[in-house]
Amino acid sequence: MKKLTFIEIMSLVAIGGILTSLGLPLYRDYAVRSKVMTALEAISPAQNALAAFHTREGRWPRDTAEAGLDVSPGSEHLQTLQWNGENQTLTVATMNLGGATVDGQEVVLAAKIDAEARSVVWDCRPSDSLPPLPLALKYLPIDCRR
Fold it and tell me: Is residue 132, in this structure, part of any structural domain at all?
């Protein structure tokens, strides 16, 4: 049975280090993306409430209070939820995503009426307001990366 030489062992350690250094940033990005998805899933009841208000009243609510939305975080990754009736946008601020650089950043969902389907369609995009910073595209779901 042949034994490994010192050079062969060090080569294996170096290859392992290289693979780890490539894999860790990708894993961190994946973890942040999954937390953003959790936050966006937590606002589903708010989206349904807004669509129901529009169906019932024939107009959009002016603000979060008129819509009757529960703005308390429904997820550990959801910091705030704010409805703007003027431009029909739901702004979501994130938290606990895994780093101070992404916490507090925002995603915007814009409500649009699909006349054919007679339903509300939500268009997702990064926030364009500064501050806070919009959430980086690499952390957003694919539907939001436009």
Answer: yes
**Total domain count for the chain?**
1
Amino acid letter at 25? P
Domain that holds residue 61: 7-144
Instruction: Report the alpha-carbon distance of residue 123 to residue 100 in Å, rounded.
Output: 26
DSSP 24-81: HHHHHHHHHHHHHHHHHHHTHHHHHHHHHHHHHHSS--SBHHHHT---S-SSTTEEEE
Neighbours of 111 (CB within 10 A): 19
pTM, rounded to two decimals? 0.76
For residue range 30-85, list pLDDT tens digits in order: 888 888 888 888 888 888 889 989 888 889 998 888 888 776 766 788 888 888 88
pLDDT in tens, 1-29: 788 899 999 999 999 999 999 888 888 88
Place of tokens 């997820």: 75
Check which CATH number belongs to the domain holding 26 and give it.
3.30.700.10
Task: Report which of 29, 31, 36, 47 is spatially closest to residue 134, judged by C-alpha positions.
Answer: 36
Comparing CA positions, the residue from 72, 70, 130 lying closest to residue 106 is 130
Half-sphere exposure of 115 (CA within 13 A, CB side): 0
